[in-house]
Each structure stands twice: as C-alpha cells, then as structure tokens.
Specification:
With about 260 residues, the chain is an alpha/beta fold. The chain has a single domain, classed as Alpha-Beta Barrel (TIM Barrel). Helices cover about 45% and strands about 15% of the residues. The chain has twelve helices and eight strands. Strand 3, helix 3 and strand 4 form a beta-alpha-beta unit. Helix 1 packs parallel to helix 2, helix 7 packs across helix 9 and helix 11 runs parallel beside helix 12. Bound molecules: 1,3-dihydroxyacetonephosphate. 1,3-dihydroxyacetonephosphate binds next to strand 8.
Length: about 260
C-alpha cells in the first residue's frame, strides 16, 4: 500500500529566530516543486523560533512542528509548554519522546503516553520516537525494547488513531554519530515495528501508520533507506540545519519512496 513520504527536520537546540527564518526562506524555494499530495515536509524549530518560522512558511508546502508538549493545559510546570500554546503559534506536528528527552530529561513511556494523548486531544499530529541503545542492540534486546516502548507509549489508543500516527524509529547509536543503520538492518526493524502494530491494533492500522527512520540520515543515504518497503521517510537532525542539504535529502527520499 502506498504511504506518503514524510520528512521532518528536528532542529534540536539550534537556530535563533533570525537564523531559522533565513533557513526556511532558502528552503521554501528549493522545495517549492514538491507536491503536498506526495510528501510532507516538516520543520521542528525550538519554541522561541516557532513564530518567525510560522510567518516565513505561510502559504508554502512546509509544515511546522514542535519538539515537545506537556500533558496539562496550564499550570505550575516550569519550562514546559502546552498543546494550546503550540497551536496558537501555528504548530501542526509535535515530536514526542525523542531519545534525548528520554536520556537527559527523564522521559518515560508513561510520560510519552500522557504527552501523546494531550497532543491528540488538541488536534496536533504527533511524531512518536522509539529506538534502542547500542547496548540494547548488542545484547539482542532490540525487539523487546521497541515492543515495550510501543506498548507503553501507545497504551489506550484506538486503532483508527494509531493508523494516523507518525512513528520515528531512531536507533540511539545512530543519532549524530554518522553511523547509519544499513537499509536492510533498518528495514528489518521497521518490519518488526509494523508487525507489532498489526498485532496490537490490527492490520489496517499497521498498513496506514507512517514509520520514519532517524539517525544520521543524509542526502547520500536517504534514497537507499526510503526505498525500503516499510520506511516512509525520515526524522532528520544534522542534515536539516542547512537548506541545501535538507532539500536534497527531501528530494532523494521522495524519489526513492515512490519509485
Ligand atoms: P542526526 O540526523 O543528527 O543523526 O539526528 C537524528 C535525530 O535525532 C532526529 O531526531
């Protein structure tokens, strides 16, 4: 079944408002010919850069995402942000449970689940991140770890909701290291993720759900990764920080995904 290619740039803690605006101003022209019916292009800047980027991409085929969302509507949660605040800033997508949030900020599958439900209730489109560490892969626990992240993270959701989700499989050992999973290795894991979703939520949800790959995806390896049957796009860190490399990656990924 044909799924849309979805490429999201996770800017992490990079780009001031002025820098972010300049990046998307350049990116807009480079990806103007990408048809939104074939592919989604998303940028996820830091919170204080959202406004400037929202303004710069208005009317273009680039969509806006954020990097985190809290589960409460408001209150005493210093440093957090609510779904309504993101909506007001023009945000459509939100990354939830990135491995850096899990590693440095105590994010768990339970908090991922809470954030996910709040995002869905507010009408945001979540990008839910899962992935194993090197130690977990080397000890043969990859599938066990991913199954636990999926069961905990997606707990209580209906199959129709799961069908519309974006998952990002990011092996932690491939993030920012230059070590990409080989296309075959990534595909094997993506196939496992899709079959796990089929087991929990049914085949229709598994066929419809978008599963991105993330971890050192670059213009040079995007085609080989996105040509795999169960890889539907990418969540991009380093290569999303420059307009030309992100645009080249987007085009290579789309061409391969729809070949
Ligand atoms: P890199 O593309 O820099 O490896 O980062 C991947 C990532 O963590 C995207 O969320």
């Amino acid at each position: 079944m044909a799924r849309k290619t979805v490429i999201a740039g996770n800017w992490k803690m990079n780009k001031t408002a002025a820098e972010g605006k300049a990046l998307v101003e350049a990116l807009k022209g480079l990806v103007a010919d990408v048809c939104p019916a074939r592919a989604e292009i998303i940028v996820c800047p830091p919170f204080t850069t959202l406004g400037a980027v929202a303004e710069a991409i208005a009317g273009s085929n680039i969509k806006l995402g954020a990097q985190n969302v809290h589960w409460e509507k408001s209150g005493a949660f210093t440093g957090e942000i609510s779904a309504d605040m993101l909506k007001e800033a023009g945000v459509e997508y939100v990354i939830i449970g990135h491995s850096e949030r899990r590693q440095y900020f105590g994010e768990t599958d339970a908090t991922v689940n809470q954030r996910l439900k709040a995002a869905l209730n507010a009408g945001l489109k979540p990008i839910v991140c899962i992935g194993e560490t090197l130690e977990e892969r080397e000890s043969g626990n990859t599938e066990k770890v991913l199954a636990a992240q999926l069961s905990g993270g997606l707990a209580g959701l209906d199959a129709e909701v799961v069908a519309g989700l974006i998952l990002a499989y990011e092996p932690v050992w491939a993030i920012g290291t230059g070590k990409t999973a080989t296309p075959e290795m990534a595909e094997e894991t993506h196939r496992f993720i899709r079959s796990f979703v089929a087991g929990e939520f049914g085949q229709a949800a598994a066929d419809a759900i978008t599963i991105q790959y993330g971890g050192s995806m670059k213009p040079e390896n995007a085609a080989a990764l996105c040509a795999q049957a169960d890889i539907d796009g990418g969540l991009i860190g380093g290569a999303a920080l420059k307009a030309d490399s992100f645009a080249a990656l987007v085009k290579n990924a789309i061409a391969a995904g729809q070949a």
